[in-house]
Amino acid sequence: MAALKRKGRQTKWGHKHLLGLRELSREEITYILDTAEGFEQISTRSVKKAPPLRGKVVVNLFFEDSTRTRNSFALAANRLSADIIEFTKKSSSVSKGETLLDTARNLEAMGIDIVVIRHEAGGVPKFLSRNIKACVVNAGDGYCEHPTQGLLDVYTIRKIKGSLDGLKIGIVGDIAHSRVARSDMWAMTKLGAEVILVGPPTLMPGEVGRLPVQVSYSLDEVIEQVDVINMLRIQFERLGGNPFPSIREYSHYFGLTVERMKKAKSDILVMHPGPINRGLEMESEVADGSNSVILEQVTNGLAVRMAVLFLVNQAAAMKV
Amino acid sequence: MAVVLDAGQIDRILGELTAQIIGASERGVEIAAIGIRSRGEVLAQRLSGRLSEALKRDVPCGTLDITLYRDDLNSPQGHAQPQVRTTDIGFDIDDKIIILVDDVLYTGRSTRAALDALIDLGRPRAIRLAVLVDRAGREFPIQADFAGYKTDAGPGKLVQVNLVESDGKDEVVID
Phi, psi at residue A295, to the nearest 5°? Predict the structure, then answer.
């Protein structure tokens, strides 16, 4: 009986950093999602704040532009009663030539506890986690991972469908330049879903043959089969060369149109990590339609980020 | 290991607690039971059932998760990690008398956390504390309004409440 009481209090999360979903187990991902459920109600009650990170300092260290993710992390930290420092590349000493490590160490000298970092180079969060004492949460690194986006995507799917086991999920668009696609793919496959990457061959990553996914070059074939479709944004800022002949042609073959939606399952979930290029990867009627869960993704992102901040801090306390 | 309360005794205590709660309640003020996860949740459900029956009106029941309000979250925890679960209170607590229910009152720390958690949900008319076991060893100035079995089991002891819904049988053991 004593064992039973202790069972509920075993270590289920031991990481003081969240660097990516690739290295996490199904159980660890499930534990984050279960924890996030407990945070959802904070946003709906009369006092939208709880005290678990009181006295802690979170730094939003963003070397790339972001509205959604940065605000979501800031609000998550605020709701957990942490103090938050906003750091952007443009208004900082980085523009005076300070190195990443110097920036981080200076922030650390002020007594910060958690660094939320976004950087255009893959591997930066990992590098940082090895060199500073604070917890590091990856908010997007290069084309590698965007773990909290992956988590909020699977959280949204699980909440509506109950489980990801056996679901077919299409991820459509610029896979090669998408850290969202990578984090999604790791989380979704670990939770038992089948993932089909869809896009023109020029936007498929070189390593695609080694990934646990199927690949299709035809959205028309895939749309009929899938339970969930995640439409990625065409990232004009990252595209080099001419990956597709014209925007119109891309939209014709890979855009989610009202016409294409007619072929989809009636209960298909339409997702998008935002910001949407309306009329390009998705028609407005679809983005605002009844199958769209795009705004639910944003709401759920807050609960997931609260859970992540809470858990990394808990793991850090454990290892003192 | 000694069984200090069996199923029959637990049942009788719940009956007494119900009578005490009704005896102390003001006319015309709504009562609701809110249990602290996880054994308090089960006890609150039983008490709200008994109260509804005795008062011939619905006494709503909710569940409170106090993990986010614990005072040991940032102290070294070894490997014992409290897990955040959902708070599930489907009614407005404003202006009601809230019967806060827990299995064991010991240091008073869980109760303190529960009071803070409740206040973030609204402004009840009053909060009263009902516990199955009142164990000596308070570290905070908190006392139960309605207490069942009293024990002065020493600090090295484990007081374990088992309930049919969560553990398969009703009993309280001191180990």
Answer: -75, -30
Residues A22 and A101 placed together within one structural domain of the fold: yes
Q: Are residues A76 and A211 in the same domain?
A: no
Least CB–CB distance from A318: residue in B67, B77, B167: B77
As a whole number of angstroms, the distance between CA B49 and CA B57 comes to 10
Q: Does residue A277 sit in the same domain as residue A182?
A: yes
Domain B9-21+28-69+86-155 is of which CATH architecture? Answer: 3-Layer(aba) Sandwich (3.40)
The interface predicted TM-score of the complex, written ipTM, equals: 0.87
Task: Suggest the residue from B36, B74, B162 to mutate for an interface test with chain A (most A CBs closer than 10 A).
Answer: B74
- Report chain A residues whose CB lies below 8 A from the CB of B34: none
Query: Does residue A172 sit in the same domain as residue A291?
Result: yes
Contacts of B2 in chain A (CB under 8 A): none
Which residues fall within 8 angstroms of residue A186, CB to CB, at 6 or more apart?
A: A20, A21, A22, A24, A145, A150
Residue located via tokens 């858990």? A311
Interchain CB distance below 8 Å, A318 and B76: yes
Give CA–CA dist B120/B58, Å, rounded: 24
CB-nearest to B160 from A2, A11, A317 is: A2
**Torsion of the alpha carbons at A314, B165, B12 and B32, rounded to the nearest 10:** 60
A134 & A208 share domain: no
Q: Which residues on chain B place their C-beta less than 8 Å from a C-beta of chain A?
A: 38, 65, 67-70, 73-87, 116-117, 119-122, 158, 160, 162, 167, 173, 175
Residue of A nearest to B75 (CA): A317
Please report, in tens digits, the pLDDT of each residue of chain A (320 residues total).
333 344 444 668 999 999 999 999 999 999 999 999 999 999 988 899 999 999 999 999 999 988 899 999 999 999 999 999 998 877 677 766 778 889 888 888 999 999 999 999 999 999 999 999 999 999 999 999 999 999 999 999 999 999 999 999 999 999 999 999 999 999 999 999 999 999 999 999 988 889 999 999 999 999 999 999 999 998 877 777 777 888 889 999 999 999 999 999 999 999 999 999 999 999 999 999 999 999 999 999 999 999 999 999 999 988 65
Q: Do A9 and B81 touch (CB under 8 A)?
A: yes
